[in-house]
Design goal:
It is built from five helices and four strands, in the order ααβαββαβα. The chain is 48% helix and 27% strand. The radius of gyration is 24 Å and the shape is elongated. It has a domain at 48-129: Sporulation related repeat (Alpha-Beta Plaits). The mean pLDDT is 85. The chain has helices spanning 2-18, 30-45, 62-75, 100-110, 127-132, and strands spanning 48-59, 81-86, 89-97, 118-126. It is α+β, with helices and mostly antiparallel strands and 134 residues long. The two termini are 41 Å apart. It has a four-stranded antiparallel sheet with strand order 2-3-1-4.
Length: 134
């Protein structure tokens, strides 16, 4: 098995070192350059991203929601916590993740203390919140 990898490694090493000292020049069409500039401009202006959160509570009692929020922040200080008001409900949500898999990890951790929690899709996640997530 090692005999098959040695020629492959020698070939890759020779390929990697053969291009040293040479400059690569890329010629792109002006329309492609303009489209890439526009793409960059649009994405730097965008302040929200689509992602996932864990919903812990939906209640009509704002005081209960705020109490649960304080409790969650005390128990899990590194977890982003926010709430939304969708009349008549106050919804308490935790975390801010791009991928569903990352959100499932936090859901598992929180399920030790909270029952009936589930993942929700959110299109109003600030980019800064993603850095604070577990």
């Amino acid at each position: 098995m090692i005999r098959t990898f040695i020629p492959l490694i020698v070939f890759l090493a020779a390929f990697a070192f053969s291009g040293q000292g040479q400059n690569i020049i890329i010629h792109e069409e002006t329309i492609v350059a303009q489209m890439m500039d526009k793409y960059e401009e649009i994405n730097t202006e965008k302040t929200f991203v689509d992602g996932w959160r864990i919903q812990l509570l939906a209640t009509t009692d704002r005081q209960r929601m705020e109490s649960e929020k304080r409790n969650l922040q005390y128990r899990y200080p590194s977890v982003t916590v926010n709430w939304v008001h969708s009349s008549p409900y106050y919804k308490l949500r935790a975390g801010a993740f791009i991928s569903k898999l990352e959100a499932l990890r936090l859901k598992y951790i929180l399920s030790q203390d909270y029952s009936g929690i589930y993942l929700v899709k959110d299109d109003k996640i600030k980019k800064e919140e993603l850095l604070d997530s577990l």
